[in-house]
Amino acid sequence: MSIAKAVRADIRKLPKGKPFTTAPFQKHGTRGTVNRTLSRLAGAGEIQRLAHGVFVRPKTSRFVGNVLPDIHEVVEAIALKNGETVQIHGAEAARRFGLSTQVPMAPVFHTNASTRTVRVAGVTVRLVHTSSRRRLQLAGEPAGAALAALWYLGKNNVNPETVATIATALGPAEFEKLRSAAMPAWMAQALDGGARETNHG
């Protein structure tokens, strides 16, 4: 079987709308040959390039046409490809939990790699370096997003109602995972107080 046929056969097994990188196809040939094959498939419309080295099998809806993956999914695929860790920015995390109405002008993520911008399906995404391991804990998990939201809101804006909202959204298991993370004393005290209120309620 030719490299192109082998790559195409593997791609057809992948779910539509789920980002994938070039890594799984390297077994079929050199990086250059695989990349050229993927570029041809993208040109033919069989796959769509989302970012450098990240593609997707197009998923269509009769209501909106082409359905692109969530940017967070694409950024996680980029991180996996590069061997880096990325965490949702606190402003976006707070918005998702309903704790803030502020909408970031452009998607921003924290990373343990270099600060840079990448284009994801035509959208400019900013990756900001952080050397703080605590801010990258539980990356990609609901508890990690909650942690990012708490860092963003800060000590003076976290109250029992904030904790209750997060606890309800996470559920007991994820909330306990959040409480077990390394964090400043003020954050731990706020979560401990929320846990007591939840248990008594």
Please characterize this protein's 3D structure.
It is a single chain. Strand 2 and strand 3 (54-56) form a beta hairpin. 30% of the residues are buried. The protein has a 4-stranded mixed sheet with strand order 6-7-9-8. It has 8 helices and 9 strands. The longest helix is centred in the C-terminal third of the chain and has 16 residues, at 185-200. The protein is of the alpha+beta class and 201 residues long. It has helices spanning 3-11, 31-43, 71-82, 90-96, 142-153, 160-170, 172-179, 185-200; strands at residues 20-21, 48-51, 54-56, 59-61, 65-67, 86-88, 108-111, 116-120, 123-129. Helix 1 packs across helix 2 and helix 6 (160-170) packs across helix 8 (185-200).
Helical residues, percent: 40-55%
Low-pLDDT windows of residues: none
Order of helices and strands: HEHEEEEHEHEEEHHHH
Largest sheet: 4 strands, mixed
Quote the distance from N terminus to C terminus: 63 Å
Instruction: Average the pLDDT over all residues and give the rounded result.
Output: 90
Going across the major beta sheet, what is the strand order? 6-7-9-8
Features:
201 residues, alpha+beta, 4-stranded mixed sheet, 8 helices, 17% strand
Which secondary structure elements does this structure contain, and how are they paired or packed?
Blueprint: H1 3-11, E1 20-21, H2 31-43, E2 48-51, E3 54-56, E4 59-61, E5 65-67, H3 71-82, E6 86-88, H4 90-96, E7 108-111, E8 116-120, E9 123-129, H5 142-153, H6 160-170, H7 172-179, H8 185-200
Parallel strand pairs: 7-9
Antiparallel strand pairs: 1-3, 2-3, 4-5, 6-7, 8-9
Helix pairs in contact: 1-2, 4-5, 5-7, 6-7, 6-8
